[in-house]
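Example 9 (inverse folding). The structure is encoded as follows.
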């Protein structure tokens, strides 16, 4: 029973304490005066009566009523009902209050009467019950009695009110009366645990809407701050109560103030969560709250600040809840679209709707918490049940570990309260308990069907409604309201009278006395066992994600474990990878723990080393996917196992599995240990009571079942039974049970202290591995179990400080572990009520436990080191090149898969990676060689290597291998040959060794000087090779590192010597240098002072010798071929040649980066050259490099002009100077130079009138043939594309995929400055005509091109060619440098400004290209797909740009204009463009010799900075790797793809160059210019110098040699057309990604070091073979992508035939022809045949004819090196021609024997198996030998069945057969007489028969054959 009202007060306006209009209230009277013992009087009520402040008002307000909620110190909530009415104050009262204001009142007496003011007065009722309506009626009645002056004393009414007692719950109804003729019926709820909501919830949803309330609901549950605003106080209270009602069964435990007085607004800035209501009057003051969610009830909005993230309900629950709510609130929504809607679908009445909404939330909680009772751990039953919730298990079983909302709710205070309230198994139950236990199945079936959900909701709503209104019929209220006139007639109203305390108190005392005498009302509380509902496991597995085909996986796991314990290790090894993959799934991990459990006998299972190793690996794999909270209980299940499995290490020393599985987060998580401990305690306590009940009959099976959820009786059931019996037990029995439980907990605590020390102390206690890696110190952050932040809060910091030391003492490990265990013990023992004595005992025990364990571990550690290491795969040695030496020998590593998926088996095929093997560092390469870890492909060999010089990036990574638990350090090495190695060092590799490896690598990658590169050091027994190779093998690391330090010091010393002197540029040319300065921090400007240009000692021989050497150079040969003059010519100076070879640079004094001989116009003397060269960057002045043999137009190359040069060249001087300045004179010289070039052109000299208009018009008609007319208009289009215009021409890049960045890429239009300067004029138009077009003018290209449909070749169509005359000389210049120049109208040259890609762009693009082609890790992010990355790299766009410019130049040259390419420093883009132009224009450069010459001339002689761009030495390391040459090769590859019949060399040739130009194997691509090569003496190496014949110094010699041996570089489709000019398409859509970037051959590594290829095959042949008895082998072979070399496995038909031909010739003992001769013969024979045949067959004509049209050719059948397709027909033809025309009359052996087509038996006179010793150093092998009298030969086959003969010994060559002696490696156990030798003219064959008898037979047979012959 409870009092209806605890206190009644009258609160009035306090006239004495007015402060500046701020009034205050005071309690005028209070009944009872004394506090009740059970409910103290709440303080500060006067604030809550007028929450907006006490104020006087000029007009009377209507009476108001609201209920505030106050929370007392015991966190009990009190309802505080306030009834406020307004009383007039007369003058006298006011004057007392305000003596100072008296004067004013006197002056205006008239106003006084009307100026009456009204003060508020409140009647307040304080109660612990919540009956809003009853309170409203009671207080209203008291007011009515007062106002209407009813004949009832107020004291009686109040006395009755205060003495009214009603039951709290139980569903009864009481009628009460206060004695003023009133009557009220109070219905008590049936169950007081359910909240009473009236219609407040429905109101809340009406005001805010579904989504908003759901936000508030989630915010309240996840502990955010919520603030309600409304102008109505009662609505605030209702809203707050409504929000609490829908949170049931969780109770809100933070600040809850539905009405907050204005004076207390600072409460809103509290840091804790709250639900508070505030009048809208204070809205402005709530604006600056940053982390408060504000719900405005009147406006219906919820404002969530940016910084607040509300976790919402997990899907699909959220969606279903919203649907259900909308069906309740808006039932018409569903049928809004129906054609015939039902007649009435009104929502229910508000009160019913309110319950329906609550029912939806009840249903929601039943779903969220379903099965929660299975995750409760009961740790104590007596004297009080102590219960803990196993959060991790709950989340794991619900598969919601990732869910933010549920995590937060379970960690929240509300849920902690829920567990402590609803955890106990024996208590009164309510609606929720029933729902969550008994309706799980129903709820799950309803989920999908909203209609069924609604039915369930309606049922629940009915129960909730019934709970609040048990007697709905009775409503006999009779309450008097104040009469109308008394409300209106306010003037004569008396103030509320003072009440008689004594009278009221008498009532109260009287009632109290009555209660004492009355018999106590005993209402038996119905306690019962709380049902648990179905266990979780089953419920989730149906809708949880079951792994595909899991049964098969579990089978694999079971089999593997069985094999391990049956010691079938090979079987187990095969299954292992599959098992490790399967263990990613939860089911398999659980299966593993169950299986292992069965192999444990008496808590112990002793294994041998290998079994132990496998079991540990499986455990680690299982644990590595467990999260730190172990939600699936897998770590928990493994915990007893890791202390059970062990192996014997020595006498009395046992190593347990736990020492090998410590590296997992879960062991350092306090939460995990707590839940483990509680679950164990629960099972022990359960056992305790089971025994007492059943007398120990029950065997202990269930202890293994961690959660104790046995099918018989669960721990909770037991506990509830015990709780029921508890009151019936005697005191002694009770004490005994308490003591037993306590000691159970205590013994478990000791057990756990041991277990924790096992898993936390590392095997090697000197290494504080555990603390550093997983941070025991962070334990606070991980453990957020709700009860405690216990004892050792301060310890966390001390951990961190201690574990910070690298080599912490072992005692440190001990201390930290002791502290961790102590914290654990404190926490669990306090929670489970262990006595203090026991706790102290534990604290003294723990350090001893830890210390003891450390001592045992030391012994184990010592012994485990002595174990023989596990059998790891044998390390395979790589084959090395001649002259290549190992710098660091094998280091065992794992090769980890990167982002390329072929090798990992993801795309089908076997997983070749990860592989285990070793990494070797040689002077030339970095090589990994090993075998895949997957046993299914374990016999394959995986090789991955790249030249050390191509290393571009190295970074450390840490790697977790799938097989091992350890995180290993590793390296990721990226190479510019498009290779990536991710390696993880094996644990046997010491970390300092790995460091040494890195240092060596760096030293080899960046030698001090070019002479340190492999190309120079090869074969000289490694001067630069690390010393420890030459000393004894086991030299200590210390000396090694000393050597390293020494050499590093040398490096630092020498570093600065080789740099060139840097003279700072003058201010004018600073801008042009800027770009270079950015690119390269070392000396940039190479304008070295003339004085410093003396050549070093290498050239000090006489000039003449140098000259003769220079003449031999490629340039010179080419100049003579092009008819640009010979050296003799230049000496005798015949004037009729327009050009001469100048030797002005023979000492490299004019320009260091140019060759010694240069082509210049005949008319220019050397002195002029000296002057001109200064205008150009790096002194690279324009020189001729090629001449068109038809139009005689020339191609020139130079660097860009210096800024000062441009000033003089283009701009007219600003001030008229009388004396010509220096700049003027040089610019005049320049003009003269250009003029000389122009005049050298025949088309120019033919025009008699040099600068007259008439001369111009005829020129190109006279000089060009008709084909020119066709081609000409394309130029305009091309020009327009290259320069770019405002309109998007198809083909400029500005439209395309790159969108925004197009401006960078397109060679975009120049900006014209429209200031006073005339816009610079182009030379398209006539010289003087005013309508000249300008090359700068954006529309020039458009007009030239005409705007018509686009043309196939990448430009708009041909149209009217506007200009009458083309310029004689086009200068392709860099737009950035040509800004603002004005051209003189008399010049006959034209400047084409284009944007070039600078070196930085190429560098960055290449980095991105590498990452796209060889990603370092696989990703599923669509933004990182290959195509997207390729596009982002912009590599294709750069190719497009270079090709586009080149095609333009080709067109210009072809129409007879000369072109000068003068970009950047003249050694990057210039070189690319010039070489491509020559390649496209001149077929000679598309042959082997020509291409070599082109590269030697344009790239090597003209000084492309190979060393600098390739970052080959320490000096250029900082500038990074920039593959300008690779870009050129890629362009050539693109052209090759479009014109496959025009090139003599194959694609492989280009790849070969691309690989070796970075590999530093040859000296060809080293150094930056001829000058540097001469200085080093590389350029003209003595021809006689043959010290190391096996080492090729030049890549060209190597290619020549190789080309003689094999057709690998040759393009079989080569059939060039004469003088064909190629014009490739250049759009990005026409370009293909070069397969050089993508391909990989893991079987043998890169195929570009040809010797290695041959050697590997030879090695393969030598391996001894067992005699094969299995029968004939299949001819089928599997070819794996990324493993096999395709060209080898599936060679193209022609190569195959040539190979067969060679091997046949070898077999027949002929000297085989060179393949080239064979090929040429076949070609000539076919040519002749084709002429004879009237209809040439397609294939032959395809191969040989040269009359295909350009279009056909460019798309002609393309025979790839590896493709098989179309080459078959060719092959057949070749075969036919080979047989029909016997080779040059030599009768081949086959024709001699072709008549013998007799049966086999005749040909086999004698046969059998003999062992034959191979050639030198080869092993003995069994072979099937056949002696053939007919053919007079001894043949041998691999096996008897084999049809293919392996070799033949011609008996004609045999000299004798003699008995032999066994040699090394001969077959064992065979008598000596079984050996015999066969001596031929060439060599001696050693044979061995099975026994001496057999040998004798063989010897006789051979001898008889010989004598017969």
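The amino acid assigned to each position is listed next.
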């Amino acid at each position: 029973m409870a009092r209806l009202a605890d206190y009644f007060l009258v609160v009035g306006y306090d006239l004495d304490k007015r402060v500046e209009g701020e009034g205050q209230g005071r309690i005028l009277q209070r009944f009872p005066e004394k506090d009740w013992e059970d409910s103290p009087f709440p303080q500060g009520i006067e604030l809550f009566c007028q929450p907006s402040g006490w104020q006087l008002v000029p007009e009377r307000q209507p009476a108001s009523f609201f209920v505030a909620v106050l929370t007392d110190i015991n966190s009990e909530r009190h309802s505080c009902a306030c009834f406020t009415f307004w009383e007039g104050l007369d003058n006298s009262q006011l004057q007392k209050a305000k003596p100072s204001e008296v004067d004013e009142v006197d002056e205006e007496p008239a106003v006084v009467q009307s100026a009456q003011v009204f003060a508020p007065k409140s009647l307040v009722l304080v109660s612990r019950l919540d009956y809003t309506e009853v309170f409203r009626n009671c207080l209203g009645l008291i007011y009515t009695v007062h106002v209407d002056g009813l004949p009832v004393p107020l004291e009686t009414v109040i006395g009755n009110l205060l003495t009214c007692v009603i039951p709290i719950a139980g569903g009864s109804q009481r009628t009460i009366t206060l004695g003023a003729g009133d009557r009220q019926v109070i219905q008590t709820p049936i169950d007081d645990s359910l909240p009473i909501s009236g219609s407040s919830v429905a109101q809340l949803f009406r005001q805010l809407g579904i989504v908003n309330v759901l936000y508030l609901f989630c915010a309240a549950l996840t502990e955010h701050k919520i603030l309600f605003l409304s102008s109505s106080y009662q609505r605030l209270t209702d809203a707050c109560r409504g929000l609490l009602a829908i949170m049931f069964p969780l109770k809100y435990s933070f600040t809850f103030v539905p009405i907050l007085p204005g004076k207390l607004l600072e409460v809103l800035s509290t840091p804790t969560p709250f639900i508070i209501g505030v009048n809208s009057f204070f809205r402005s003051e709530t604006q600056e709250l940053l982390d408060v969610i504000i719900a405005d009830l009147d406006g219906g909005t919820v404002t969530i600040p940016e910084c607040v993230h509300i976790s919402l309900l997990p899907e699909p629950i959220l969606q279903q809840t919203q649907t259900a709510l909308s069906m309740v609130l808006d039932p018409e929504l569903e049928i809004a679209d129906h054609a015939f809607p039902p007649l009435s679908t009104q929502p229910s009445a508000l009160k019913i709707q309110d319950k329906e909404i609550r029912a939806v939330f009840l249903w929601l909680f039943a779903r969220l918490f379903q099965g929660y009772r299975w995750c409760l751990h009961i740790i104590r039953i007596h004297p009080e049940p102590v219960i803990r919730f196993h959060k991790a298990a709950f989340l794991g079983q619900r598969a919601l570990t990732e869910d933010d909302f549920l995590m937060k709710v379970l960690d929240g205070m509300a849920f902690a309260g829920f567990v402590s309230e609803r955890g106990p198994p024996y208590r009164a139950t309510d609606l929720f308990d029933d729902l969550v236990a008994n309706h799980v199945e129903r709820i799950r079936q309803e989920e999908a069907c909203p209609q069924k959900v609604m039915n369930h909701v309606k049922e629940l709503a009915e129960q909730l409604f019934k709970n609040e209104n048990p007697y709905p019929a009775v409503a006999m209220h009779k309450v008097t309201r104040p009469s109308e006139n008394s409300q209106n007639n306010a003037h004569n109203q008396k103030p509320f009278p003072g009440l008689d305390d004594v009278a009221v108190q008498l009532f109260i005392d009287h009632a109290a006395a009555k209660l004492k005498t009355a018999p106590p009302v005993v209402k038996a509380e119905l306690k019962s066992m709380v049902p648990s509902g179905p266990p979780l496991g089953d419920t989730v597995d149906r809708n949880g994600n079951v792994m595909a085909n899991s049964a098969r996986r579990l089978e694999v796991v079971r089999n593997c474990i069985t094999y391990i314990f049956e010691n079938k290790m090979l079987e187990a090894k095969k299954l292992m990878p599959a098992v490790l993959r399967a263990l990613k799934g939860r089911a398999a991990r659980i299966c593993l723990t169950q299986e292992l459990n069965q192999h444990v006998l008496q808590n112990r299972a002793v294994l041998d080393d290998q079994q132990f190793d496998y079991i540990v690996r499986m455990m680690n794999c299982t644990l590595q996917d467990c999260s730190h909270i172990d939600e699936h209980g897998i770590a928990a299940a493994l915990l007893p196992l890791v202390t059970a499995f062990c192996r014997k290490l020595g006498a009395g020393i046992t190593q347990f599995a736990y020492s090998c599985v410590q590296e997992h987060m879960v062991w350092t998580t306090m939460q995990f240990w707590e839940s483990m401990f509680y679950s164990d305690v629960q099972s022990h306590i359960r056992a305790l009571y089971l025994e007492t009940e059943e007398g120990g009959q029950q065997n202990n099976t269930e202890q293994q079942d961690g959660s104790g959820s046995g099918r018989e009786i669960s721990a909770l059931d037991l506990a509830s039974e015990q709780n029921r019996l508890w009151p019936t037990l005697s005191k002694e029995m009770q004490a005994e049970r308490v003591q037993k439980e306590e000691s159970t907990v205590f013994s478990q605590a000791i057990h756990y202290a041991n277990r924790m020390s096992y898993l936390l102390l590392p095997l090697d206690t000197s290494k504080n591995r555990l603390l550093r890696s997983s941070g025991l110190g962070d334990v606070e952050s991980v453990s957020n179990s709700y009860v405690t932040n216990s004892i050792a809060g301060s310890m966390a910091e001390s951990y961190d400080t201690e574990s910070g030391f690298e080599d912490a003492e072992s005692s440190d490990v001990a201390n930290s572990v002791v502290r961790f265990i102590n914290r654990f013990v404190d926490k669990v023992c306090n929670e489970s009520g262990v006595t203090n004595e026991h706790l102290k005992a534990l604290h003294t025990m723990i350090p001893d436990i830890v210390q003891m364990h450390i001592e045992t571990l030391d012994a184990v550690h010592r012994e485990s080191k002595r174990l023989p290491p596990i059998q790891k795969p044998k390390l395979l040695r790589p084959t090395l090149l001649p002259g290549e030496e190992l710098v660091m020998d094998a280091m065992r590593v794992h090769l980890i898969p990167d982002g390329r998926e072929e090798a990992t088996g993801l795309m089908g095929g076997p997983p070749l990676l990860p592989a285990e093997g070793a990494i070797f560092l040689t002077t030339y390469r970095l090589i990994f060689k090993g075998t895949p870890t997957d046993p299914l492909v374990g016999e394959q060999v995986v090789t991955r290597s790249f030249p050390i010089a191509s290393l571009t990036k190295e970074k450390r990574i840490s790697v977790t291998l799938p097989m091992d638990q350890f995180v290993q350090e590793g390296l990721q090495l990226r190479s510019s040959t498009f290779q990536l190695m991710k390696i993880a060092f094996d644990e046997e590799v010491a970390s300092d060794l790995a460091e040494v490896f890195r240092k060596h690598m760096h030293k080899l990658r960046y030698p001090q000087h070019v002479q340190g590169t492999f190309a120079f050091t090869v074969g000289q027994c490694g001067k630069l090779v690390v010393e420890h190779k030459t000393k004894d093998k086991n030299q200590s690391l210390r000396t090694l590192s000393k050597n390293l330090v020494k050499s590093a010091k040398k490096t630092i010393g020498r570093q600065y010597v080789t740099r060139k002197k840097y003279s700072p540029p003058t201010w004018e040319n600073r801008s042009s240098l800027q770009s270079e300065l950015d690119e390269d921090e070392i000396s940039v400007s190479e304008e070295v002072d003339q004085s410093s240009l003396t050549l070093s000692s290498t050239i000090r021989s006489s000039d003449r010798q140098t000259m003769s050497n220079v003449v031999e150079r490629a340039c010179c040969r080419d100049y003579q071929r092009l008819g640009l003059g010979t050296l003799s010519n230049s000496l005798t100076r015949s004037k009729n040649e327009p050009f001469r070879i100048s030797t002005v640079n023979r000492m490299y004094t004019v320009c260091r980066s140019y060759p010694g001989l240069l082509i210049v116009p005949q008319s220019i003397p050397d002195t002029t050259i000296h002057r001109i060269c200064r205008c150009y960057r790096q002194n690279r002045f324009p020189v001729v490099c090629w001449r068109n043999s038809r139009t005689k137009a020339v191609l020139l190359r130079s660097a860009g002009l210096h800024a000062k040069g441009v000033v003089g060249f283009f701009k007219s001087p600003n001030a008229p100077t009388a004396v010509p300045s220096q700049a003027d004179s040089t610019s005049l010289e320049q003009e003269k130079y250009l003029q000389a070039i122009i005049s050298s052109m025949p088309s120019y000299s033919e025009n008699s009138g040099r600068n007259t208009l008439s001369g111009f018009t005829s020129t190109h008609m006279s000089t060009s043939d008709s084909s020119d007319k066709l081609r000409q208009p394309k130029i305009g289009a091309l020009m327009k594309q290259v320069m770019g215009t405002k309109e998007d021409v198809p083909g400029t890049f500005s439209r395309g995929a790159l969108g925004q960045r197009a401006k960078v890429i397109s060679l975009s239009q120049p900006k014209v400055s429209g200031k006073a300067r005339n816009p610079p004029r182009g030379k398209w138009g006539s010289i003087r005509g005013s309508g000249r077009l300008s090359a700068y003018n954006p529309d020039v290209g458009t007009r030239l091109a005409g705007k018509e449909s686009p043309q196939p070749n990448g430009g708009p169509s041909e149209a009217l060619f506007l200009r009458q005359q083309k310029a004689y000389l086009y200068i392709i210049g860099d737009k950035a440098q040509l800004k603002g120049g004005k051209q003189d109208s008399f010049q006959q040259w034209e400047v084409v400004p284009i944007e070039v890609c600078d070196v930085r762009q190429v560098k960055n693009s290449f980095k991105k290209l590498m990452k796209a082609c060889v990603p370092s890790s696989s990703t599923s992010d669509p933004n990182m797909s290959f195509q997207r990355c390729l596009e982002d790299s912009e590599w294709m766009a750069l190719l497009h740009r270079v090709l586009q410019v080149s095609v333009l130049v080709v067109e210009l040259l072809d129409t007879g204009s000369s072109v000068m390419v003068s970009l950047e420093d003249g050694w990057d883009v210039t070189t690319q463009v010039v070489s491509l132009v020559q390649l496209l224009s001149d077929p000679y450069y598309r042959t082997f010799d020509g291409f070599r010459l082109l590269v030697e001339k344009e790239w090597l002689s003209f000084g492309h900075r190979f060393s600098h761009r390739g970052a080959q030495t320490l000096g250029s390391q900082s500038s990074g790797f920039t593959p300008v040459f690779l870009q050129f090769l890629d362009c050539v590859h693109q052209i090759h793809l479009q014109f496959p019949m025009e090139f003599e060399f194959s694609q492989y040739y280009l790849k070969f160059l691309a690989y070796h130009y970075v590999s530093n194997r040859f000296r060809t691509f080293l150094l930056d210019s001829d000058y540097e090569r001469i200085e080093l003496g590389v350029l003209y190496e003595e021809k006689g110098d043959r010290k190391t014949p096996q080492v090729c110094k030049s890549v060209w010699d190597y290619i020549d040699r190789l080309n003689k041996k094999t057709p690998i570089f040759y393009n079989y489709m080569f059939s060039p057309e004469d003088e064909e000019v190629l014009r490739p398409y250049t759009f990005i859509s026409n370009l293909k990604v070069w397969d050089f970037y993508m391909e990989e051959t893991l079987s043998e590594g890169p195929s570009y070091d040809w010797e290695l290829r041959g050697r590997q095959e030879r090695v393969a042949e030598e391996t001894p073979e067992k005699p094969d008895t299995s029968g004939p082998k299949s001819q089928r072979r599997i070819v794996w992508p990324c493993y096999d070399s395709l060209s080898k496995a599936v060679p193209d038909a022609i190569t195959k035939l040539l190979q067969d031909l060679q091997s046949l010739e070898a077999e027949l003992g002929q000297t085989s022809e060179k393949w080239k001769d064979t090929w040429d013969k076949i070609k000539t024979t076919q040519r002749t045949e084709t002429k004879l045949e009237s209809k040439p067959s397609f294939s032959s004509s395809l191969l040989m004819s040269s009359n295909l049209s350009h279009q056909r050719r460019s798309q002609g059948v393309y025979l790839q090196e590896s493709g098989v397709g179309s080459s078959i027909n060719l092959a057949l033809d070749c075969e036919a021609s080979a047989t029909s025309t016997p080779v040059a009359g030599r009768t081949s052996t086959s024709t001699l024997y072709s008549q013998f087509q007799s049966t086999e038996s005749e040909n086999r006179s004698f046969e059998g198996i003999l062992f034959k010793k191979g050639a030198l150093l080869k092993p003995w092998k069994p072979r099937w030998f056949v002696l053939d009298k007919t053919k007079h030969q001894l043949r041998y086959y691999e096996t008897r069945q084999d049809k293919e003969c392996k070799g033949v010994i011609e008996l004609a060559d045999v000299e004798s057969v003699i008995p032999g002696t066994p040699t090394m490696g001969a077959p064992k156990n065979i008598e000596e007489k079984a050996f015999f030798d066969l001596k031929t003219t060439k060599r001696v064959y050693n044979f061995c028969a099975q026994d001496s008898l057999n040998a004798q037979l063989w010897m006789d047979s051979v001898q008889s054959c010989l004598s017969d012959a």
